[in-house]
Amino acid sequence: MKDLSMVVKLVVREKKDILLSILFGFLAGITAVGLFGASGYLVSKAALIPPLYTLVLVVSFVKLLGFIRAISRYVERYVSHRATFTILSHLRVSFYEKLEPLAPGIFQKYRSGDLLARIVGDVESLQNFFLRVFYPPIVLLIVFLCTIIFTTFYSLSIALVLLGGLLVTALIVPCLFAMRQRKIEGQLREERGSLSTETTELLYGFRDLKIYRKLAEKENQLKESSDCYIKEQEKVGIHASLSQAMNSLASLVASWVVLALGAYLVVEDQLEGIFLAMLVMISLTVFENVTPMAVFPIHLEDSRRAASRLFSVVRDQSSKTQNHQDSIQLEGNQSLAIEIDKVSFAFPGEARSTLENVHLHLPAGSKTAIVGPSGSGKSTLLQLLLKIQAGYTGKVNLGGTSLDLLDKESLWSHTNAVLQENHFFYGTIRENLMLAGDDLTDIQLDEALAKVKLNHVQLTDSVLEKGGNLSGGEKQRLAIARALLKANPLWVLDEPTSSVDALTENTIYQYLFEAAKDDTLILVSHRLTGLERMDKIVVMEHGEIIEKGTFNELMDKRGYFYQMKQIEKSVFTA
């Protein structure tokens, strides 16, 4: 219930709409009771053939109640739904504010399909919290108490029957079904998450599934997941129908008891017969307000589960991330010195350390290459520097300031990053390049494209989702063009030209080193060609630094780097 309390805090921010919803909900409920009660009294009174003006007054009162009920119900629905949409807006904003600092590391804990199901499905499920869980019980309680108090003026015993009916229909029956609902609802959400995950993986991996002839197998898994989800939905539907049926049965039994007891009291001259129809009609009508309680346990459990699944993603965010207001901002446009001291890191849930006791000093304006076999921790080290990964031990300083204290936005605004995987949005080449700055001109964009040998590309050319219509080399060159346009003092390049031919790569590096001549540059590369221009080369293996120095120093040392260089030469000369 702790997660649900976070939703309640967002709900109570709409105090005005909450009070209006309760007020007009009460007016709609109590006027409905009065309307049918007056109708019952009118029928009984008319049977005694009273003066016409008496009937006219009662009929006018009935019409007035009907008018007030319709207006009140309309206003209640309008205000409550307005509050719901505003609350959902607050919920989404609050959730995304907590989620954003965790990206992209969040994908190491949650599969993309499951995360999508939480962000979309669970948020939508919480729209029923205010409409079906929060204020309807308040309205029901007020209407029932007012009705019971009114009934006591005619018969205390009938008032007690109504009170007993309230306890059964609003408390006992919902509680009994809530226990079963918790188990069913949990299974439904798990199956929905599984279905979303299977669907996402089928769409993302369709090409590879086709190539390896595993599409039919994956489609069967998706169908099985869909069938399981449908079965759970059927269980929820049956459970909801049974809850409503039991609630309606209890309400009708209470009304029959009121009728039988009222008839007995009339026979015993303890109740005037003219009021019997009125009390029966009041009983039938007031229990209509209990109808929402039939689905109350369903929506309560649904909201509880949704809140739990949703906020479990960001539950520990406050303790793991720094508040932007308390973070230090990087100032100026000067190159930064980097100091890494005894840094170790392991991914969550993994016993093996990806980085082990890494120590490295990079002076401001230096050019450093990090090389080594795949899986040696090169890319992970860059991710730590960019605060994409967290939870490391040791110390990392940028420009004399601890990395833990630096504001992420400030760090990223001072960094030109080209990673192994760079995202491209659906749109045009211009729109994807404009990520580097809103004030860039078409001339600047064309110049950047020319530097990375993309002269054949037009700014108006379309880009499909994830750059689906671009080759691997074109994606890398487009990402480098964005970095050149951003022109910040810290360059972090992770295999930026691995899919580019040697001649184009050489041209791109000339422009890169010219643009970064006064900046701090870190390059991760598997290729050892062209590293002579680097100030320092760091060799990593199994998460540790095993060698570091200039190109000539490492070649003279004839160690691991020398062996890698000799192997590279033999491959290209064979």
Automatic annotation (TrEMBL):
Residues passing through the membrane, by range: 20-42, 48-68, 129-150, 156-179, 249-267, 273-296
Domain ABC transmembrane type-1: 19-291
SUPFAM superfamilies in the record: ABC transporter transmembrane region, P-loop containing nucleoside triphosphate hydrolases
Cellular location(s): Cell membrane
Claim: Nucleotide-binding is one of the keywords in the record: yes
Membrane topology label: Multi-pass membrane protein
Pfam family, one: ABC_tran
Keyword Zinc: no
Predominant location: membrane
Domain ABC transporter residues, every copy: 338-567
Alphabetical list of InterPro entries matching this protein: AAA+_ATPase, ABC1_TM_dom, ABC1_TM_sf, ABC_CydC/D, ABC_transporter-like_ATP-bd, ABC_transporter-like_CS, P-loop_NTPase, Type_1_exporter
UniProt keywords, alphabetically: ATP-binding, Membrane, Nucleotide-binding, Transmembrane, Transmembrane helix
PANTHER family reported for this sequence: ATP-BINDING CASSETTE SUB-FAMILY B MEMBER 10, MITOCHONDRIAL (PTHR43394:SF1), ATP-DEPENDENT PERMEASE MDL1, MITOCHONDRIAL (PTHR43394)
Protein name: Thiol reductant ABC exporter subunit CydC
Organism: Halobacillus naozhouensis
Phylogenetic lineage: Bacteria, Bacillati, Bacillota, Bacilli, Bacillales
Protein's gene: cydC
